[in-house]
Amino acid sequence: MKERSGHRNGAENRVTVYERVTEKISELLKQGVVPWQRPWALHVGPPRNGVSGRFYRGLNIFMLSHAGFDSPWWFSPKQVNDLDAHIRKGEKVSWAHFFKPWLPKGEPTEILETDAKDAEVSTRRRPVLIIRAYRVVNLDQIEGPGADKFRDKHPPAERIEKDNDPIAGCEQIVEAMPQRPGIRYGGDEAFYRQWTDEVHVPRREHFGSSEKFYATLFHELVHSTGHRERLNRKTLTDGVPFGSPTYSREELVAEMGAAFLCSIAGIEDPTIQNSASYIESWLKFLRSDPKALIIAGAQAQKAADFILGSAGVEQVEAEAEQVEAEA
Question: FRET label pair with 64: which of 117, 193, 197, 318, CA 20 to 30 Å apart?
Fold first, then answer.
C-alpha cells in the first residue's frame, strides 16, 4: 500500500509540472507572444547553464528565453552559493524541466544471457522517463563577488548584422541531414508525404524571403524525422485526420523543431503569424492536453538533433545524470 501511495503522489506531481508549464505558455499566448517564434534574440543566444556551459534543451529553451532577462546564463540555487554569490532579495525562481530515465527499485537495468554460440544476448529493459523540475535563476538575478567575476568573464555579446553566412548555414544543415528524404522543389504547397518519403516545397524565388523558404523547409524536414525508418514518431506514423489532437501535436513538434533549426542557422523563423485565430487555436488545444507542450518540446529537440546528426539515447541519459548533479 505504501508503494502504491508513493506512485500516486509521483503521478500527481508530474501533472502539476505539466499544468504549470502549460499555464506559463498560455499566459504568453494571451499576451500575443508565440513562444516558439523567435525563441531568443540572435545576439544573446539560447539559455545555458552557467557552471557546465551546457545549453538547455526542449521546452526549457522557450520557457527561459521568455523569462524577461537579457543574460542567457542560468544557475541552480546551489550553484549560486558555490559561485560565492547570492540571489537578490525578492527575486523569483524559474523552473527547468527534464526527463529522467527510471526503473523500479531492485530490478536490473540489463540482463545478459549466453546462447549456444557463446554470444552475449542483451534483454535490456527500457526505462520509464519521468519528468523532474529544478529551480533556476538568471545571472541578472544574482549578486556578489562571484557574480561580478562571471560577468567580467562573459560580457554581453554585441549585436551582429546578418549577412549571407546564415543562409549558407541553412544549406549546410539541409545537406548534412542523415537519411535525408527526397526534396522536390516546385508547386505552390509545402508538405511532407510519408508514403513516398518526400518533402515538397515551392521554389525559393516564390517566397517573400530566403528566411521564409528555409523556415518552411525546416518545418517539413522535422515532419520527415517521424518516419518509421527514422524516429518512428507516433504523431506522424499513425494516420490521423486534419485538426485532430494527434495532428495538432505533430504540428507543434514541427513548429518547435523548425524554430530550433532557424536559431541554430542564425535566422529568425518568420512563418508563424501572431494572429488572434492562430493563438486562440493553440490555447484551445493546450487547455485540452496539459502534457502536450513538454512532450512536443522533447520530441522537437530529438527531431532537430536527428537532422543535425547529433545526440542519441546515450546522450539523453548522460544529460539527465548531468542535470541531477547540477541541481
Answer: 318
